[in-house]
Amino acid sequence: MKQVKQKVTIGGKNDVNPVADNQASIDEGKGHFTHHCQICHGNDGQNTGVPFAQQMSPPVADLKSDDVQGYTDGQLHWIIQNGINPSGMPAWKGILEDDEMWKIARYIRHLPPKGSLGIPEIFKEEQEEHEQMHAAGKSEHEHSHSGENAHTHEKPHSH
Q: How far is the C-alpha of 141 from the C-alpha of 138, rounded, in Å?
């Protein structure tokens, strides 16, 4: 597959983050990040445990990378607000409050070491299934989710 690099203009370069750079703002930003962003960026912002991060086109950004950290807070806020097209980064305008977006930008400046927060909860079950499958030497596995009826996956039948 041939990748085409496109130049994307990121606005907000001169916008100043109105949120104080203190632990309370960082912690609140982490909470919003965990709720809205970790599904794609991992708990640590570095895609740890996100199985599809490198399969996206373009791949999901490592938020601790020099490229991302090179953006101003205003640019990070602009990206969160408007998303990046074409990519999987959605626009959060109308979903997150402006203050929440600025706090996420604060948190992105203080990301923890890669892998230190584990993998997103949603991917743990899948990872555990694959580990058990490999330990048992199986090549195929079934997916089940807590609370599903045991007959949900059966083929329909008639009497």
A: 7
